[in-house]
Amino acid sequence: MHKPSESNAAPFPPRQDAPRSIPSSCPVSRDPNHPLLHSLQPQSSSPSTTEAQHTTSSTSSTLSKLNPLNYMPSLSNARPTDSPQSVSLPLDRETSTIPRADNDENWEYPSPQQMYNAMLRKGYTDTPAEHVESMVAVHNFLNEGAWREIEEWERIFAPGLSHGWEICSKGEKGIAFERAKQEFLAARREALGLPANQEEEQRKPKLVRFQGRPKEPSPKARMLGMMGMIMPEKFGGEPPFDRHDWYVARKNPDGTVTEVRYVIDYYSGGVQATGEPVFYLDIRPALDTPTAAVERAMRWGGDIWHRASGASAREAAKRDAENNNRG
User: Fold this and answer.
1) In the chain, alpha helices (H)
2) Is the pTM of this model over 0.90?
3) CA pseudo-torsion sign 226, 247, 302, 268
4) What do you get for the CA distance between the two ends of the chain, in Å?
5) Contacts 24+ apart (CB under 8 A), 234-238
6) Over the range 65-83, which residues count as b (16 or more CB within 10 Å of their CB) and which as e?
7) Residue 216 counted as domain residue
8) What does the angle CA 163 – CA 165 – CA 168 come to, to the nearest 5 degrees?
């Protein structure tokens, strides 16, 4: 679970050449209307048009306006002539660290103007325009944290379940140590001016597409909600204010690519003493396959196994002995 001191949400397709509009809408949305459900409304037709023809035409027209990579309607990056905003907002879009699966570029986040346009489209006309830039910064921050967590899952399990258990059986401390080692080696390469390890680069996951599903609570969120009703003192709390599904391209050891769906539940964690909001991101692979179920069991059960088997105590004793010998 990712816990940043600020917030953010899901990436956006790259900039397109004018005059095309750019798909945009804040994925961390409290909007109760899913874009597909909201958009697929029948339109008027001539009396000679049959109901079946009308439905097909309406659906095709609506789907043609949606980007298949995020299922969101296209929005302009320009300030609307009737916009109630009191200040001009930047049009520049920040490039994320999240690689795209369809090309060699990274996903781009929405500009503050796009974010504001998306909020207007969803009916939030009372949003202070001067706060939008901060909202975009929070939005981007959370996305980066979510992707780092997904990279962690992929680093552990993309090489195979045996590799996954080798890492997970060392507990969360072992996972953190492995992550720190990888980060140290990468920083060392960069400091020495050495090129990145191409084999490792090719194994890195890439984001295929994403979808906001705020009106569809995940099975885990529903289960926690039910447990909160039964045992509020232990499981009580606010439900997630949003849910996203991120579809990730995983490079398998044999060179093939598998699409893995990750579920992200967004929880509000209140406000810090400094006034900064806190958000919790619960990120895990969806239970679409038996392999995903095993991965989740390994990740969450590995730490319990590590402590129950006495491995953590043996490691602590070994460290104490080494320190005594050095002393």
Assistant:
1) 35-39, 51-64, 112-121, 132-157, 161-168, 171-191, 198-203, 219-230, 232-235, 290-308, 311-326
2) no
3) negative
4) 39
5) 237/267, 238/267, 238/268
6) ebbebbbbbbbebeeeeeb
7) yes
8) 110
Domain range for 29: 22-158+205-288
Partners of residue 264 on adjacent β-strands = 244, 283
As a dihedral over the C-alpha atoms of residue 163, residue 164, residue 167, residue 170, rounded to 10 degrees, the angle is: -130
Gap between the Cα atoms of 103 and 14, Å rounded = 11
- The values of phi and psi at residue 309, to 5°, are -80, -5
Mean pLDDT by 10 residues, the chain (327 residues): 43 36 37 34 37 42 51 69 84 93 92 88 83 89 94 95 93 88 89 84 91 90 90 85 94 94 92 86 96 95 85 71 70
Is residue 58 situated within a structural domain? Answer: yes
Q: The tokens of 22 are what?
A: 């750019």
Distance of alpha carbon 4 from alpha carbon 191, whole angstroms: 28
The amino acid at residue 161 is: L
The residues with which 245 forms a beta bridge, in sequence order, are 211, 263
Both tokens of residue 8? 């953010």
DSSP state of 130: G
The pLDDT assigned to 324 comes to: 73
Q: What is the pLDDT of residue 74?
A: 66
Pairing state of beta strands 95-99 and 242-251? unpaired
pLDDT value of residue 67: 58
d(CA 284, CA 263): 6
**Which residue is it, tokens 């602590």?**
316
Q: State both tokens at 144.
A: 């980066």
The C-alpha atoms of residue 59 and residue 36 are separated, in whole angstroms, by 10
For residues 169 and 302, is the Cβ–Cβ distance under 8 A?
Answer: yes
DSSP 54-90: HHHHHHHHHHHTEETTTTEEEE-SSPPTT---SS---
Domain for residue 306, yes or no?
no
Is residue 15 included in any domain, yes or no? Answer: no
Establish how many alpha carbons lie within 13 A of residue 13's alpha carbon, considering only the half-sphere containing its beta carbon: 23
In this prediction, residue 53 carries a pLDDT of 42
Query: How many structural domains are present in the chain?
Result: 1
Element (H, E) at 86: none
